[in-house]
Design brief:
3 domains, alpha+beta, Rossmann fold, single chain, Elongation Factor Tu (Ef-tu), domain 3
Length: 405
C-alpha cells in the first residue's frame, strides 16, 4: 500500500470539551465538526474523519524528528513519509454514546484525551475507556491536554489522577503525554508515540472481505438528468479481506420493504480512498464504495449499520439474539459502584459493528439472555454486542454480549 494511502484507523476519544476536535485539527489540518448542528452546539455529533501523514527528519533525533510537514522545522531538511493513518474523532457527549461505539468498530488504536483542568475521570472518560476495553483496543495513547491552563502542581495532580483511573484497565501501561493542543505544544511527541505504540496491524488479505458501513451518500446534484445519475455511495472501513472494483457484493440487513429488511446485491463500480481512485480496498483507512444502487436508498446515511460482503460469506440477518452476557461493574461520577443486571422485559440499546438497535429481553437464565430486536442486524456467531441500559434516565454502558447460535 502506498505511503499516502491510510494503513490504519486511530480513534480520538474523551470527555466532551477536552479538546478532541482541536487535537484532530492540529494533527490533520482538518476541522471535523462540519455538520451544521455540530457548529451550532460546539460538539461533535457524527464521526469525524481526517487523514494524517506522519513524516520524519533523517537528521534530527528524538521526538523533534517527527512532523507532518515536508520540511523539518528545526534543520530545514526534506522529511520522509513514514505512513498515513485515518483519524476518527468520536463524540464526547454522553447522549451520543452509540456513535462512540460505532467508532470502536472501525479502529486499530486510540488516543484518549483527558483535560488537566478537570478532575479525572469525567463521566464520558469512563464510558469511552470502557468502550475501548469491550472492543479489545489494546494500543492506546493518553493525551493530557490543556496543560497551558493549569499550574505545575495541578498538572502533576492530574497525572496522578489519570494513573489511578487507568490502573487495572486495558490502558494501564499507556504512555501519558502532556500537551496543549491549542498552542500545538508536544504534537511531535504524539507523532512519535503513534509510531511506537500504535503500529499498523498485520492484515490477512485471504479472509473473506467484510466492510462496516458508517456513512452512505447520494452524490448527485439536484436536477441531474437520469442518464447521468451516479449510483449510491457507501462509506466505511474494510474490517478484513480485500474488495475489488467489479466485485458483486451483498449488503445486509439491506433495505426495508414493508415490515421486513431485504438483503441487496449490487456491483462495485468504483473505489476511492483519501480522494484517490484505487483498484483494491484493504483494511486501514476509510473507503468510499461506488455502487449500482439507486441513490435514493443511500442518501442521508440511510444505510449506516449495514455490512458489505461477498454473497457466499454474508452473515445471517437476526431478528432475535441469543447472548452470553458479561456485565462490567462501572464507576459512576457519584463514585458509587453499581451492578447493572439484565432482567426479562428490560429494554437494551445494542451496538454491533456500526449497527445499533433496541433489544427487548424475552428470556433470561443466569448469564444467558434472549432478545427480540426492533431493527434486525446482520452478524456472525461469536460477534460481540455492546449493551447499554437506561439507568437514572440515561443510557449507561453496562457490558457486552457474545452471540451464541
Amino acid at each position: 500500500m502506498a505511503k499516502n494511502i491510510p494503513s490504519a484507523n486511530i480513534g480520538i476519544f474523551g470527555h466532551v470539551d477536552h479538546g478532541k476536535t482541536t487535537l484532530t485539527q492540529i494533527l490533520t489540518g482538518k476541522f471535523t465538526d462540519e455538520h451544521s448542528e455540530e457548529l451550532k452546539r460546539g460538539i461533535s455529533i457524527r464521526l469525524g474523519y481526517a487523514d494524517l501523514t506522519i513524516r520524519k527528519c533523517p537528521k534530527c533525533e528524538g521526538s523533534k524528528a517527527y512532523t507532518t510537514f515536508p520540511k523539518c522545522f528545526y534543520c530545514g531538511s526534506n522529511t520522509e513519509i513514514l505512513r498515513t493513518i485515518s483519524i476518527i474523532d468520536v463524540p464526547g457527549h454522553e447522549t451520543l454514546l452509540a456513535t462512540v461505539l460505532t467508532g470502536t468498530a472501525l479502529i486499530d488504536g486510540a488516543i484518549l484525551v483527558i483535560a488537566a483542568n478537570e478532575r479525572c475521570p469525567q463521566p464520558q472518560t469512563v464510558e469511552h475507556l470502557t468502550a475501548l476495553e469491550i472492543a479489545g483496543i489494546k494500543n492506546i495513547i493518553i493525551v493530557q491536554n490543556k496543560i497551558d491552563l493549569v499550574s505545575k502542581k495541578r498538572a502533576l495532580e492530574s497525572y496522578k489522577e489519570i494513573k489511578e483511573f487507568v490502573k487495572g484497565t486495558i490502558a494501564e501501561n499507556a504512555p501519558i503525554i502532556p500537551i496543549s493542543a491549542h498552542h500545538s505544544v508536544n504534537v511531535d511527541v504524539i507523532l512519535e508515540a503513534l509510531e511506537k505504540y500504535i503500529p499498523t496491524p498485520n492484515r490477512d488479505e485471504s479472509k473473506p472481505p467484510l466492510m462496516y458501513v458508517a456513512r452512505s451518500f447520494d452524490v448527485n446534484k439536484p436536477g441531474t438528468p437520469i442518464e447521468k445519475l451516479i449510483g449510491g455511495v457507501l462509506g466505511g472501513a474494510v474490517a478484513q479481506g480485500v474488495f475489488k472494483e467489479g466485485d458483486e457484493v451483498e449488503i445486509r440487513p439491506g433495505i426495508k420493504k414493508g415490515d421486513k429488511f431485504v438483503p441487496v446485491k449490487t456491483r462495485i463500480v468504483s473505489l476511492h480512498q483519501s480522494k484517490q481512485k484505487i483498484d483494491v480496498a484493504k483494511p486501514g483507512g476509510l473507503i468510499a464504495v461506488g455502487t449500482q444502487l439507486d441513490p435514493f436508498f443511500t442518501k442521508s446515511d440511510a444505510m449506516v449499520g449495514n455490512v458489505v460482503t461477498l454473497p457466499e460469506h454474508a452473515p445471517p440477518i437476526r431478528e432475535e439474539l441469543n447472548l452470553e452476557i458479561n456485565i462490567i461493574e462501572r464507576l459512576l461520577e457519584t463514585n458509587e459502584k453499581i451492578q447493572a443486571d439484565i432482567k426479562q422485559g428490560d429494554v437494551i440499546l445494542m451496538n454491533v459493528g456500526t449497527a445499533r438497535t433496541i433489544g427487548i429481553c424475552i428470556e433470561k437464565n443466569k448469564n444467558k439472555a434472549k432478545f427480540r430486536l426492533k431493527i434486525p442486524i446482520a452478524a456472525y456467531e461469536r460477534e460481540r454486542v455492546v449493551l447499554s441500559k437506561q439507568i437514572e434516565g440515561r443510557w449507561r454502558l453496562i457490558g457486552y454480549g457474545v452471540i451464541n447460535g
